[in-house]
Structures are given as C-alpha cells and as structure tokens.
C-alpha cells in the first residue's frame, strides 16, 4: 500500500481529532457541563433531615447546604405527569398525561412527536444514559427509553414494583436496554441502580459531555428496605411504617453518596451540574410526609406539588449555599439544562430557562404555572378540576385530587412521632369542593393554605378565573384508555413487554 503524503496524514489526523473531541456550536464538547439528573420517587416535603430531624440524609443535606436549595419549586401531583414534564418541557395537560399515572395495560405514553431532553442533549454531543424508573409508556418500543434519546437503559417501565423481585403486579419488569434482565432479580433496586451509575461513570470518555438520568425507585411503595438501614439509622422512630420509610430514605442517601464519591474519584464532578428532585409530594397513606404543607401526593395542594429539590455544582454557581426563593416548575429543567449545555430547547414548550437565575441569584423568569387541569370523570372526581398559580395567588377549581380508596386528602398530616403516636386528621373535617367551587389562596402569606380568601379579594378572583379559562382553551384530551388484554405479561413469558400497540 502506498505511503500517505504529509498533507493526507495531517488531514486524516485532523478528522480523527474531530471525532475524538467533537465541537458543537463552536463550543468544545469537553467544556459543556456533565449533568446528573436525580429523581427520587414519592419523597415528601418533610422526608429529609433539614425539615424532619428524625430522618437520615447526610449526603443530601450536605449537597443542599453547599448547593442551592429550591424553596418554591413545583412538580406534578403524580409520577408519570412529572416525568413527562421533565422529559418534554410541557405541562401534562398539553401532552395528554394529566390524568393519573400510566398503568401497565394502558396504551398511554409520552407522545412520540415530542422531542425529549436526551434527544436534544444528544444533538449537542452528549452521551445519554437512563437508570431506574421510566413510567412514560411501553406499549410500543418507540415509547421506551432507548428509542427516546437514551444510549442505554437499565431499569423498569412501570411503577410500584417489588424492590427485590422486580415484579410489577403479575409481570416481571426489569430491562437492560431492550433485553429482559434477570441477573439483577433478588437485588434491592437502590444497590443495582447505584452500581450501574458507577459503571457508566467509570466507563465514560471524559472528553464527551455526559447526561445521566438517575430515576430511583426509592422511596415509592411498597415499603421495603434491608433491616440494617432501619436499625442503624432509624431505630429511634417507634412508628413502624415511618421507621421503614426512614430506612428507605437512608439507603437512597447512601446510594447517592456512593455515586458522588465515584464522580469525585473520576474528576467528572469538577464540571458537573447535579439536579436532585422529587417527582411529587409524599403519600401520607404510605408513611410519606409533607408537614406543614397541606395535602398529599395525588392532590394539587402544596403538599402534593411543592417539591423537595436542590441543585449542586462545585464550580458553576456564584451563589452556592443559598436558598432560591424564585418560582420554578418541573417543565423548566429541559430549557435550563439546554442553556447550561450551550443549546436551545425546542420552540413552544412550556418551560423557561432558570439557568441565569440559578447561577447568579437573579429573579426567576417564571411568574405563573398550572398545577394541573383534568377533564375526565373518574368515580367521585368531577369532569373538570384545575389549579393555577400567578404571582403569590393560587386559584383552585373543584376538588384538589384523590388518593387511594377515593379519599381526598384535603388536610394537614403531622409527622408520626418518635414515640409511635401519630395525630390523625379527620378527613370529614374539611368538605371536598364541588366542580363549580373555587378557592383562592395567597401562598406567600399563607403557604399552608389555611385561609380561602376569595370573598376578601373578588377582583383577584375574577382575574384568576379569567386566566384559568385562557389556560383551559389550550388543554388537550387526556390519554387514559381502558386496559388492553393484549398487554398481559402471560403473552410474553411473564414479563411486561412492548409490542401490543
């Protein structure tokens, strides 16, 4: 074979270097921040030690204290809607995912025509990996993680699976990319997910920016945790279910400690943005707690939607160690991360970039958001109910939501005491609003929603009702179909498997 000329060799070397260290939008890929997006499942406002001193979260506490604690940050009342907001930047009532969560046998999913956060980051040169819970649809392969922008996936499609067996109802639910993963059966999921994250971090080419979406199963029900975490870190709590929940939070904290320690060892943490967020408020029926906020998971009360969250970085923020009081919503993560990466989100999304506000402490660009709006009649729930926020004002039409067994969870639920006693809230003490009833709150003055002031401020009520009507004009129908027998895992060897829609 003839030898290459010096000019040819220089051209080839230049091409190889372009492959090894790509440039996007004139910015070296190595200069883009790595992003670790951690989602805790069902972690309540009061399920962390900086609000409830009986809990055990030393790692999260340190990161929140040294990072930026988000004190006016909101998520959706339930799992799938929040995850759709994270991945798409749209409010769920604009994607059809505003009603409940995606059930295993439903043809429901994040619409395929939407550009996802990992797809947009891939366009900027990021390696993208997902670990943990998906819960955004799986009836067709095109709705699953490795077809929605992720280079790899380890985890499960549904929700509420057993932490050890990975059974979700009547089917097994654990995948490595598209293949069924039986190797991890029997291992507690927090261990599995932390180990997978550490492998991905260790194998990553540091010249390429990394996006790691780490959606833990912890601390969603069922209430399961290795006994050592209850005994060592939570033995002072006599209430049995709260003690177990404390242990589940403790193992989550340990998993994050192991992952961030590995980031330190590899040096990736020096140029990394870490986001930590819950997906909804705590389920008070399942030992979660949101005290002193009102309500619970599945409701539009502050206890169901005001999320525990913080951002952390060693070098990206000027205002580390502060509390960010500006309004922020789950839909804002998409444009915020894109701004941090030097790109732009798809036009028309509901999210706004909070990057400047977070990095400099300047005021939030957001002054309004929609808690949720839904128009499906479901048992005792009326055909339409909604809540919106504008400035300090919150308007709610109809019931706030419904927990298990049709219980509205309209009250205030103190944390179970270390002596095992828990003050019970009488659900009948607060009447559940009808579909045409409105409630108005000033969240700045009354964050615990004790005082409906609609009669005191009729002009504000009128303006908020008009704004709610405007938002309602943009609502799309909810995609919440009947269960499809074609999804039965018996058709697929006992495993929940795509391919039936």
TrEMBL record:
Residues 33-342 form the Sulfatase N-terminal domain. Keywords: Calcium, Glycoprotein, Hydrolase, Metal-binding, Signal. Its cofactor is Ca(2+). It comes from the Eukaryota. The keyword Hydrolase applies. Residues 480-501 are annotated as: Disordered. InterPro entries: Alkaline_phosphatase_core_sf, ARSB, Sulfatase_CS, Sulfatase_N. Residues 1-29 form the signal peptide. GO terms for molecular function: metal ion binding; sulfuric ester hydrolase activity. CDD domains: 4-S. PANTHER family: ARYLSULFATASE (PTHR10342), RE14504P (PTHR10342:SF273). Belongs to the sulfatase family. This is Sulfatase N-terminal domain-containing protein.
């Amino acid at each position: 074979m003839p030898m290459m000329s010096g000019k040819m060799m220089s051209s080839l070397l230049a091409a190889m270097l372009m492959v090894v260290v790509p440039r996007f939008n004139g910015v070296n890929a190595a200069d883009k921040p790595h992003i670790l997006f951690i989602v805790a499942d069902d972690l309540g406002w009061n399920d962390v030690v900086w609000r409830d001193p009986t809990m055990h979260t030393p790692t999260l506490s340190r990161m929140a204290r040294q990072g930026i604690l988000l004190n006016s940050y909101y998520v959706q009342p339930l799992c799938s809607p929040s995850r759709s907001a994270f991945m798409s930047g749209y409010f769920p009532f604009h994607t059809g995912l505003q009603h409940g969560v995606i059930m295993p046998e439903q043809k429901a999913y994040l619409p395929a025509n939407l550009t996802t956060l990992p797809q947009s980051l891939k366009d900027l040169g990021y390696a993208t990996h997902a670990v943990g819970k998906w819960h955004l649809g799986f009836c067709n392969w095109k709705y699953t993680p490795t077809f929605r922008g992720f280079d790899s996936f380890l985890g499960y499609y549904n929700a509420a699976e057993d932490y050890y067996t990975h059974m979700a109802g009547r089917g097994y639910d654990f995948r490595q990319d598209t293949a069924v993963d039986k190797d991890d059966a029997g291992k507690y999921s927090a261990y599995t997910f932390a180990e997978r994250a550490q492998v991905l971090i260790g194998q990553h080419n540091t010249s390429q920016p990394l996006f790691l979406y780490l959606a833990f199963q912890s601390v969603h029900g069922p209430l399961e945790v290795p006994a050592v975490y209850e005994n060592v870190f939570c033995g002072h709590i006599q209430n049995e279910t709260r003690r177990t929940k404390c242990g589940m939070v403790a193992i989550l904290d340990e998993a994050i400690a192991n992952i961030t320690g590995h980031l330190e060892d590899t040096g990736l943490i020096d140029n990394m943005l870490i986001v930590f967020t819950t997906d909804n408020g705590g389920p008070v029926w399942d030992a979660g707690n949101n005290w002193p906020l009102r309500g619970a998971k599945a409701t539009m009360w502050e206890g169901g939607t005001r999320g525990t969250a913080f951002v952390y970085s060693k070098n990206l923020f000027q205002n580390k160690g502060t509390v960010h009081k500006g309004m922020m919503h789950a839909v804002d993560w998409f444009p915020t991360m894109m701004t941090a990466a030097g790109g732009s989100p798809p036009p028309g999304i509901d999210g706004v970039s909070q990057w400047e506000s977070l990095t400099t402490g300047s005021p939030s660009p957001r002054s309004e958001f929609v808690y949720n709006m839904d128009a499906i009649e479901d048992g005792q729930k009326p055909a339409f109910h909604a809540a919106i926020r504008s400035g300090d004002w919150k308007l709610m039409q109809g019931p706030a939501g419904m927990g298990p067994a049709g219980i509205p969870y309209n009250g205030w639920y103190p944390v179970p005491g270390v002596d095992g006693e828990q003050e019970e809230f009488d659900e009948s003490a607060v009447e559940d609003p009808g579909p045409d009833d409105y409630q108005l709150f000033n969240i700045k003055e009354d964050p615990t929603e004790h005082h409906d002031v609609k009669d005191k401020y009729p002009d504000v009520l009128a303006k908020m009702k008009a704004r709610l009507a405007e938002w309602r004009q943009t609502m799309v129908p909810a995609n919440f179909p009947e269960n499809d027998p074609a999804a039965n895992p018996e058709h697929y060897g006992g495993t929940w498997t795509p391919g039936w829609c």
